[in-house]
């Protein structure tokens, strides 16, 4: 595994070199995959903090356990409506704040 070793000072430049500038198809694909992974980790962590199994969460949502697994692996990206349903089933809420 390659580490930073505190030598990278401009991550944007690194991403641009590897995946292209913002607005290019390659960068858009990378950004989409990164957001899918980030979302999957948020939901995985929230489920574990709620002490629910994938099966229990799936039952609350009326979906298959395999769907929850795919979401948590970043393979399946839930729609916004489904994301909010998952969040509610975990007893959580989403807050939108100004950037």
Q: What descriptors fit this protein?
A:
99 residues; 61% helix; 434 Repressor (Amino-terminal Domain)
Q: What's the overall average pLDDT, rounded?
A: 91
Low-confidence stretches: none
Query: Mind telling me the CATH superfamily name?
Result: lambda repressor-like DNA-binding domains
Structural class: mainly alpha
Number of strands: 0
CATH top level?
Mainly Alpha
Major β-sheet profile: none
What share of the residues does DSSP label as strand, in percent?
under 5%
**Helical percent range?**
55-70%
Order of helices and strands: HHHHH
- Shape verdict: elongated
Number of domains: 1
Total DSSP helices:
5
CATH architecture, by name, is: Orthogonal Bundle
CATH topology: 434 Repressor (Amino-terminal Domain)
Q: Could you state the oligomeric state of the chains shown?
A: single chain
Report the C-alpha radius of gyration, rounded: 17 Å
Instruction: Please give the alpha-carbon distance between the first and last residues.
Output: 33 Å
